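Dear colleague,

Thank you for sharing your sequence with our group. We've completed the structure prediction you requested, and as agreed, I am returning the results in plain text so they can be pasted directly into your records. Please verify that the sequence below matches your submission; if there's any discrepancy, let me know and we will rerun it promptly.
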Amino acid sequence: MTSSELINLSLEQVAEALGDPTAAVFARMYERYPALKHFRGEDSSWENYMMQEILSNILQYADEPETALVTIKDMTTHHQLIGVPLDVFKGMYSTLLDVLKPTFQGEQQAAMAAAWQQAIDAIHRVVDQQSAF
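Please find the predicted structure tokens below.
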């Protein structure tokens, strides 16, 4: 299976097991990165937006890695400008995988986790490169 197929398969499993993982992912993010609480307000719609963006980045990476990494460069700059620490920005991707990975099942379980990890590692490298500027 391709990375795109593996990630899509994993997301189907996530949907079956968790439904919408946004609340679980952000609960863990707030535990790991208390600085993120500064951005939390009564309107949590930004969390849904961020989850959509992050999942879109992962899916785009699976299909078109170069294009996805350009998007990540832009997002890194944006997050720096609004005061989001880059370890928090990177941490969102790792936290997402930590929450989702236990739902991966079947003979493709290891391959799904590897496809996600490959994407996240590439994203982290781009963020680290941007932070050097």
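Summary note from our side: The mean pLDDT is 90.

Kind regards,
the structure core
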